[in-house]
Design a protein that fits this description.
mainly beta, 5-stranded antiparallel sheet, two-stranded antiparallel sheet, about 35% strand, elongated
Length: about 90
């Protein structure tokens, strides 16, 4: 490794730009350490033909985005499924 390369202090991963590090952590480590408690709905899509509602969420702390999909059954929504993250990574209030 040359002296010009900058690495994450936590995982050792190389970053291209030192400004990408937040307190020595790369973006992946920041996202992995975040519990996603401070989140908001960015937008949502309602598909009448496939009968599902997709909610686009964003964590306001680490800025990761994910989709939550509800299957509609006679207008009632089912338990949601996470498409981009593990269910254990999201706070289920």
């Amino acid at each position: 490794m040359s002296n010009d390369e900058v690495c994450c202090e936590y995982c050792g991963g190389e970053v291209w730009d030192p400004s990408e590090l937040q307190n020595g952590k790369c973006l992946l480590c920041v996202v992995n350490d975040c519990r996603h408690f401070v989140r908001d709905i960015a937008s949502y899509d309602l598909n009448h033909y496939e009968r599902h509602l997709t909610v686009h969420m964003v964590c306001l702390d680490c800025e990761i985005c994910w989709d939550v999909r509800y299957q509609l059954d006679n207008g009632n929504k089912s338990k949601y499924r996470h498409e981009d993250l593990n269910a254990s990574d999201i706070n289920h209030d």
